[in-house]
Amino acid sequence: MSPLVVSLIVLLCIFGSSLGGLLLRPHFPDGHLNTESKEVIKLVVGIVGTMTGMVLGLLVASAKSSFDSQHHGVSQLAANVVVLDRALAHYGPETQATREALRKTVTDMIERIWAEPKPANGDATKYEEVYDHILALQPKNESQRTNQALALKVVHDTAQMRWLLYSQRIGSIPPVFLILLVAWLAITFGSYGLFAPRNATTIAVLLLGSLVVSSAVFLILELDRPFGGIMHISSQPLRNALAQVGQ
User: Fold this and answer.
1) Interval 44-57 mean pLDDT
2) C-alpha span between 225 and 5 (Å, rounded)
3) Contact, 226 vs 168, CB < 8 A?
4) pLDDT tens for each residue of 116-140
5) 19 to each of 15, 194, 235, how far by Cα in Å?
Protein backbone atom coordinates (compact mmCIF):
# COMPACT_ATOMS: atom_id res chain seq x y z
CA MET A 1 0.00 0.00 0.00
CA SER A 2 1.43 3.38 -0.97
CA PRO A 3 2.29 6.02 1.67
CA LEU A 4 -0.35 8.36 0.21
CA VAL A 5 -3.13 5.79 0.65
CA VAL A 6 -1.96 4.98 4.18
CA SER A 7 -1.83 8.66 5.14
CA LEU A 8 -5.36 9.18 3.76
CA ILE A 9 -6.59 6.26 5.88
CA VAL A 10 -4.86 7.78 8.89
CA LEU A 11 -6.54 11.13 8.15
CA LEU A 12 -9.96 9.48 7.96
CA CYS A 13 -9.39 7.57 11.20
CA ILE A 14 -8.18 10.60 13.17
CA PHE A 15 -10.68 13.10 11.84
CA GLY A 16 -13.48 10.54 12.10
CA SER A 17 -12.54 9.97 15.74
CA SER A 18 -12.67 13.70 16.48
CA LEU A 19 -16.08 13.99 14.79
CA GLY A 20 -17.21 10.98 16.80
CA GLY A 21 -16.25 12.82 19.98
CA LEU A 22 -18.29 15.84 18.88
CA LEU A 23 -21.33 13.66 18.16
CA LEU A 24 -21.07 11.62 21.35
CA ARG A 25 -20.82 14.57 23.73
CA PRO A 26 -24.56 15.35 23.91
CA HIS A 27 -25.31 11.69 24.75
CA PHE A 28 -23.03 11.54 27.80
CA PRO A 29 -24.73 11.79 31.22
CA ASP A 30 -24.00 15.05 32.97
CA GLY A 31 -22.14 13.34 35.80
CA HIS A 32 -19.65 11.80 33.36
CA LEU A 33 -18.49 15.17 32.06
CA ASN A 34 -18.29 17.15 35.26
CA THR A 35 -15.20 19.12 36.25
CA GLU A 36 -13.52 16.23 38.08
CA SER A 37 -14.06 13.82 35.18
CA LYS A 38 -12.77 16.34 32.68
CA GLU A 39 -9.57 16.84 34.69
CA VAL A 40 -8.87 13.11 34.83
CA ILE A 41 -9.58 12.66 31.12
CA LYS A 42 -7.38 15.62 30.21
CA LEU A 43 -4.49 14.24 32.30
CA VAL A 44 -4.70 10.80 30.68
CA VAL A 45 -5.09 12.22 27.18
CA GLY A 46 -2.18 14.55 27.86
CA ILE A 47 0.03 11.54 28.63
CA VAL A 48 -1.14 9.73 25.49
CA GLY A 49 -0.66 12.86 23.38
CA THR A 50 2.84 13.43 24.76
CA MET A 51 3.87 9.84 24.07
CA THR A 52 2.40 10.01 20.58
CA GLY A 53 4.20 13.27 19.82
CA MET A 54 7.51 11.84 21.05
CA VAL A 55 7.09 8.70 18.95
CA LEU A 56 6.20 10.72 15.85
CA GLY A 57 9.22 12.98 16.34
CA LEU A 58 11.55 10.04 16.86
CA LEU A 59 10.16 8.26 13.80
CA VAL A 60 10.66 11.33 11.59
CA ALA A 61 14.21 11.81 12.88
CA SER A 62 15.04 8.11 12.49
CA ALA A 63 13.56 7.91 8.98
CA LYS A 64 15.43 11.06 7.90
CA SER A 65 18.70 9.74 9.33
CA SER A 66 18.23 6.42 7.51
CA PHE A 67 17.36 8.24 4.27
CA ASP A 68 20.49 10.42 4.51
CA SER A 69 22.63 7.37 5.27
CA GLN A 70 21.36 5.52 2.21
CA HIS A 71 21.78 8.64 0.06
CA HIS A 72 25.40 8.79 1.20
CA GLY A 73 25.70 5.05 0.45
CA VAL A 74 24.61 5.60 -3.16
CA SER A 75 27.15 8.40 -3.60
CA GLN A 76 29.90 6.25 -2.06
CA LEU A 77 28.91 3.32 -4.25
CA ALA A 78 29.18 5.50 -7.35
CA ALA A 79 32.61 6.71 -6.22
CA ASN A 80 33.73 3.11 -5.68
CA VAL A 81 32.66 2.17 -9.20
CA VAL A 82 34.75 5.00 -10.69
CA VAL A 83 37.77 4.14 -8.49
CA LEU A 84 37.50 0.46 -9.45
CA ASP A 85 37.31 1.30 -13.14
CA ARG A 86 40.34 3.61 -12.94
CA ALA A 87 42.36 0.98 -11.06
CA LEU A 88 41.57 -1.53 -13.79
CA ALA A 89 42.41 1.03 -16.49
CA HIS A 90 45.81 1.70 -14.90
CA TYR A 91 46.48 -2.02 -14.66
CA GLY A 92 46.58 -2.37 -18.42
CA PRO A 93 44.62 -3.32 -21.56
CA GLU A 94 44.18 -6.91 -20.31
CA THR A 95 41.41 -5.65 -18.00
CA GLN A 96 39.13 -4.57 -20.84
CA ALA A 97 36.84 -7.60 -20.39
CA THR A 98 36.70 -6.93 -16.63
CA ARG A 99 35.70 -3.33 -17.20
CA GLU A 100 32.96 -4.42 -19.60
CA ALA A 101 31.69 -6.87 -16.96
CA LEU A 102 31.73 -4.00 -14.45
CA ARG A 103 29.59 -1.90 -16.80
CA LYS A 104 27.01 -4.69 -17.04
CA THR A 105 27.03 -5.11 -13.27
CA VAL A 106 26.40 -1.41 -12.60
CA THR A 107 23.57 -1.35 -15.15
CA ASP A 108 21.97 -4.36 -13.50
CA MET A 109 22.48 -2.78 -10.06
CA ILE A 110 20.59 0.36 -11.07
CA GLU A 111 17.72 -1.68 -12.47
CA ARG A 112 17.44 -3.81 -9.34
CA ILE A 113 17.63 -1.04 -6.75
CA TRP A 114 15.31 1.42 -8.51
CA ALA A 115 12.86 -1.08 -10.03
CA GLU A 116 10.62 -3.90 -8.89
CA PRO A 117 12.31 -6.61 -6.80
CA LYS A 118 13.93 -9.41 -8.79
CA PRO A 119 15.69 -12.63 -7.78
CA ALA A 120 19.18 -11.77 -6.58
CA ASN A 121 21.03 -14.81 -7.98
CA GLY A 122 21.72 -13.31 -11.39
CA ASP A 123 22.98 -10.12 -9.80
CA ALA A 124 25.41 -12.03 -7.57
CA THR A 125 26.69 -14.05 -10.53
CA LYS A 126 27.40 -10.91 -12.54
CA TYR A 127 29.32 -9.34 -9.72
CA GLU A 128 31.27 -12.54 -9.07
CA GLU A 129 32.33 -12.40 -12.71
CA VAL A 130 34.10 -9.09 -12.03
CA TYR A 131 35.70 -10.55 -8.91
CA ASP A 132 36.86 -13.68 -10.75
CA HIS A 133 38.35 -11.61 -13.56
CA ILE A 134 40.39 -9.55 -11.10
CA LEU A 135 41.60 -12.66 -9.26
CA ALA A 136 42.68 -14.21 -12.55
CA LEU A 137 44.96 -11.28 -13.38
CA GLN A 138 48.67 -12.07 -13.28
CA PRO A 139 50.53 -8.86 -12.40
CA LYS A 140 53.98 -8.52 -13.89
CA ASN A 141 55.26 -5.55 -11.90
CA GLU A 142 54.69 -3.64 -8.67
CA SER A 143 52.30 -1.16 -10.28
CA GLN A 144 50.00 -3.93 -11.50
CA ARG A 145 50.12 -5.68 -8.12
CA THR A 146 49.13 -2.44 -6.40
CA ASN A 147 46.22 -1.84 -8.77
CA GLN A 148 45.03 -5.44 -8.43
CA ALA A 149 45.07 -5.19 -4.63
CA LEU A 150 43.18 -1.89 -4.78
CA ALA A 151 40.61 -3.35 -7.18
CA LEU A 152 40.01 -6.36 -4.91
CA LYS A 153 39.50 -4.12 -1.87
CA VAL A 154 37.06 -1.88 -3.74
CA VAL A 155 35.18 -4.96 -5.00
CA HIS A 156 34.71 -6.23 -1.44
CA ASP A 157 33.58 -2.82 -0.15
CA THR A 158 31.23 -2.26 -3.09
CA ALA A 159 29.65 -5.70 -2.79
CA GLN A 160 28.78 -5.05 0.87
CA MET A 161 27.31 -1.62 0.12
CA ARG A 162 25.36 -2.96 -2.85
CA TRP A 163 23.65 -5.66 -0.79
CA LEU A 164 22.88 -3.19 2.00
CA LEU A 165 21.20 -0.81 -0.43
CA TYR A 166 19.24 -3.61 -2.08
CA SER A 167 18.04 -5.00 1.25
CA GLN A 168 16.95 -1.54 2.47
CA ARG A 169 14.81 -0.63 -0.54
CA ILE A 170 11.70 -2.08 1.17
CA GLY A 171 10.07 -0.26 4.12
CA SER A 172 11.01 -1.41 7.62
CA ILE A 173 8.16 0.01 9.74
CA PRO A 174 6.03 -2.89 11.09
CA PRO A 175 2.29 -2.53 10.31
CA VAL A 176 1.40 -3.32 13.94
CA PHE A 177 3.49 -0.37 15.10
CA LEU A 178 1.69 1.94 12.68
CA ILE A 179 -1.71 0.63 13.77
CA LEU A 180 -0.92 1.31 17.44
CA LEU A 181 0.30 4.81 16.60
CA VAL A 182 -2.91 5.58 14.71
CA ALA A 183 -4.95 4.22 17.61
CA TRP A 184 -3.17 6.57 20.02
CA LEU A 185 -3.83 9.48 17.68
CA ALA A 186 -7.49 8.52 17.33
CA ILE A 187 -7.89 8.42 21.12
CA THR A 188 -6.24 11.82 21.47
CA PHE A 189 -8.30 13.53 18.78
CA GLY A 190 -11.48 11.79 19.93
CA SER A 191 -11.03 13.34 23.37
CA TYR A 192 -10.45 16.75 21.76
CA GLY A 193 -13.76 16.42 19.96
CA LEU A 194 -15.47 15.26 23.16
CA PHE A 195 -14.76 18.53 24.94
CA ALA A 196 -14.96 20.88 21.95
CA PRO A 197 -18.01 22.98 21.05
CA ARG A 198 -19.89 21.93 17.92
CA ASN A 199 -19.24 24.72 15.40
CA ALA A 200 -17.52 25.20 12.06
CA THR A 201 -14.35 26.68 13.56
CA THR A 202 -13.82 23.67 15.82
CA ILE A 203 -14.37 21.24 12.97
CA ALA A 204 -11.94 23.19 10.74
CA VAL A 205 -9.26 23.18 13.46
CA LEU A 206 -9.70 19.46 14.09
CA LEU A 207 -9.43 18.82 10.35
CA LEU A 208 -6.28 20.92 10.15
CA GLY A 209 -4.71 19.03 13.05
CA SER A 210 -5.62 15.70 11.44
CA LEU A 211 -4.03 16.83 8.17
CA VAL A 212 -0.81 17.81 9.94
CA VAL A 213 -0.54 14.48 11.77
CA SER A 214 -1.40 12.39 8.71
CA SER A 215 1.16 14.34 6.66
CA ALA A 216 3.78 13.44 9.30
CA VAL A 217 2.87 9.77 8.83
CA PHE A 218 3.15 10.26 5.06
CA LEU A 219 6.60 11.81 5.50
CA ILE A 220 7.77 8.90 7.67
CA LEU A 221 6.55 6.29 5.19
CA GLU A 222 8.08 8.14 2.24
CA LEU A 223 11.47 8.40 3.93
CA ASP A 224 11.22 4.71 4.82
CA ARG A 225 11.03 3.87 1.09
CA PRO A 226 14.18 5.65 -0.15
CA PHE A 227 14.23 4.14 -3.65
CA GLY A 228 10.58 4.66 -4.60
CA GLY A 229 7.79 7.17 -4.18
CA ILE A 230 7.87 10.95 -4.32
CA MET A 231 10.92 11.64 -2.13
CA HIS A 232 13.30 9.03 -3.48
CA ILE A 233 17.06 8.85 -3.76
CA SER A 234 18.21 9.62 -7.29
CA SER A 235 20.11 7.05 -9.32
CA GLN A 236 21.97 9.84 -11.12
CA PRO A 237 25.27 9.40 -9.18
CA LEU A 238 25.46 5.77 -10.31
CA ARG A 239 24.44 6.69 -13.86
CA ASN A 240 27.20 9.31 -13.92
CA ALA A 241 29.65 6.68 -12.69
CA LEU A 242 28.40 4.28 -15.38
CA ALA A 243 29.19 6.88 -18.03
CA GLN A 244 32.80 6.93 -16.81
CA VAL A 245 33.27 3.14 -16.93
CA GLY A 246 35.43 2.08 -19.85
CA GLN A 247 36.57 5.61 -20.71
Assistant:
1) 85
2) 14
3) yes
4) 544 444 445 566 788 888 888 888 8
5) 6, 8, 44
